[in-house]
UniProtKB/TrEMBL annotation:
Species the sequence originates in: Roseivirga misakiensis
Entry protein name: Transporter
Assigned protein family: Belongs to the sodium:neurotransmitter symporter (SNF) (TC 2.A.22) family.
Localisation: Membrane
CDD domains to which the protein is assigned, alphabetical: SLC6sbd_Tyt1-Like
Record Pfam families: SNF
Keyword Coiled coil: no
Thylakoid keyword on record: no
């Protein structure tokens, strides 16, 4: 589907495929490849997978429709979208401004983690046995790697929507799937790998508890770029002819697909080497390198694995940088070049404390915050709790309520109908309105209450 250039100089997607790749790339990040497998391991394997898929279909995809439709209806990035539809200070603050801050501050430390993945490509090839703790605590490694990753992100965003973000996504997303397939095939050919497949794919319904459902809701929620202002901003670059329904379904499908494929990379290898599938956040940087070091051809497979993590991080970082950059382009009338470089430079400076918070500097590594019964240690973990977890849920809830109840919901339904033949008043559109008005706000509120320790089982964010 060819798309003509925008008349308002904001830029537009060059094709439906390009938009889907970019939006899916935003949703597909480290959370799919790193977090999904260990959350699955902690929640009983196959049973969790089924609940997770249900959450993506019933909650994630309708919220994607909402944010994409909101962006295209206003043709503005997040702050402009709320402002132009008459939002009061409450919705502006907790819906619009907070969304921009979420994308900015998450990207400030996301670049640090992405830098680690770049470093581990080199560690895999060289056969280095340096521990993760020593590696992460070395600022002469972590800060330059973060700078390199940030520069690549700035360069792509600087090239524009069609010429930069879309062009990069069209290359990076297929490469990501190929890399996942390579590592998964090698993992599946290991002796004893089928034990991992059995754990992963055979659901034990006795394992499904309230904890399982809330963990699945949280994973679906955090992995789909909902509540960041990203899908509102990306939706604002969509032409009226674009099919939001099919695009949203494809984004949800690809996001869940990468997460599911990640399980086929990790569980067969973990079981083949007799390690625990419940290793938690240490799985990627401590457990898997140990597995790769014992595996025939492990150096190459390890390098492939960390390369795909870097690619996944880049497809997400591009979208996170676009959110604050688009604010300056829309509201301050800055050029794209100025916006990308100013925001990117600020990101690097703000990211330095995170780079120093894994042992690089005692002040940033040892600071603590206790909230809702949980204690978070280190500057990066504290930032991740507030901006990478808690505030995302706030933004998603406020945006959902605003679109469903404060704006005329018919505006969004009509917007989604354009290009999708989804006539308002039909069963499909009525079901969408019901979900966005009643089901999604209640579910988001449950996730929020769970994070606040009401149910006592919160397992962390995205």
């Amino acid at each position: 589907m060819a798309i003509n250039a925008s008349s308002d100089n904001r830029g537009q997607w060059g094709s439906k495929f390009g938009f889907i790749m970019a939006a899916a790339g935003s949703a597909v990040g480290l959370g799919n490849i790193w977090r999904f497998p260990y959350i699955t391991g902690e929640n009983g394997g196959g049973a969790f997978v089924l609940v997770y898929l249900a959450c993506v279909i019933l909650i994630g995809v309708p919220l994607l429709f909402t944010e994409m439709g909101f962006g295209r209806f206003t043709k503005k990035s997040t702050i402009g979208a709320f402002k132009d539809t008459g939002a009061n200070p409450f919705f502006m603050g907790l819906g619009a401004i907070l969304a921009v801050l979420v994308s900015f501050f998450v990207l400030s430390y996301y670049g640090v983690i992405a830098g680690w993945t770049i470093g581990y490509i080199g560690k895999s090839i060289s056969g280095s046995t340096e521990s993760f703790a020593d590696f992460a605590a070395n600022p002469t490694m972590t800060i330059p790697l973060m700078a390199a990753f940030t520069l690549v992100t700035i360069f792509i965003v600087n090239k524009g929507i069609s010429g930069g973000i879309e062009k990069a996504a069209k290359v990076l997303m297929p490469v990501l799937f190929i890399l996942i397939a390579v590592v998964a095939i090698r993992s599946l050919t290991l002796e004893g790998a089928m034990k991992g497949v059995d754990f992963y794919m055979n659901p034990d319904f006795s394992k499904i508890t309230g904890n399982t459902i809330l963990a699945a809701l949280g994973q679906a929620f955090f992995s789909m770029s909902i509540g960041w202002g990203i899908m509102v901003t990306y939706g604002s670059y969509l032409p009226k002819s674009a099919n939001i329904v099919s695009s949203g379904v494809w984004v949800g499908f690809m996001d869940a697909g990468v997460a599911l494929l990640a399980g086929f990379m990790i569980f067969p290898a973990v079981f083949a080497y007799g390690l625990s599938p419940e290793a938690g956040p240490t799985l990627v940087f401590q457990v898997l390198p140990e597995i790769f070091s014992q595996m025939p051809g492990g150096a190459a497979i390890g390098a492939f694995f960390f390369l795909l993590l870097t690619v996944a991080a880049l497809t997400s970082s591009i979208s996170m940088l676009e959110v604050p950059a688009s604010y300056f382009m829309d509201e301050k009338k800055w050029s794209r070049k100025k916006s990308a470089w100013v925001v990117g430079t600020a990101l690097f400076i703000v990211g330095i404390p995170s780079a120093l918070s894994s042992g690089g500097a005692a002040f940033f590594s040892e600071m603590e915050v206790t909230i809702f019964g949980g204690t978070y240690t280190g500057f990066m973990d504290i930032l991740d709790y507030f901006f990478g977890t808690f505030f995302i849920v706030i933004v998603a809830l406020v945006t959902c309520i605003y679109v469903a109840w404060k704006m005329p919901i018919d505006n969004i339904v009509s917007e989604i109908d354009q290009g999708s033949k989804w006539t308002p008043g039909t069963l499909a559109s009525n079901a969408f309105v019901f979900f966005i008005r009643f089901v999604c706000p209640v579910v988001i509120l449950l996730v929020l209450l769970n994070m606040m320790g009401i149910f006592g089982i919160f397992a962390g964010g995205g």
